Amino acid sequence: MPNKPLLNLQNINITLHILFRLVASQLPCIYTSISEDYDERMLPSITTEILTSVVACFDAG
């Protein structure tokens, strides 16, 4: 998420690394409902929303 503009027109650079492990018993459900590329389809939108809300809690002052 490089150079994400904030509401006050400041730009920040953020690198986010995500470590995750799926629950093995849920894999069949995930693969059939989302497909095997779940990480490429789901994680970007989820992480963008969460990261934006966390960054919004802090100000640059």
From TrEMBL:
Gene Ontology cellular component terms for the protein in this record: mitochondrial inner membrane
Subcellular location: Mitochondrion inner membrane
Keywords assigned by UniProt, alphabetized: DNA synthesis, Membrane, Mitochondrion, Mitochondrion inner membrane, Signal
Signal peptide coordinates: 1-25
Coiled coil regions, renumbered to chain: none
Presence of the UniProt keyword Ribonucleoprotein in the record: no
Keyword Phosphoprotein among UniProt keywords: no
Listed GO biological process terms: DNA biosynthetic process; mitochondrion organization
Similarity comment: family membership: Belongs to the prohibitin family.
Function of the protein: In the nucleus, acts as a transcription coregulator, enhances promoter binding by TP53, a transcription factor it activates, but reduces the promoter binding by E2F1, a transcription factor it represses. Interacts with STAT3 to affect IL17 secretion in T-helper Th17 cells.
Protein known as: Prohibitin
Organism listed in the record: Neotoma lepida
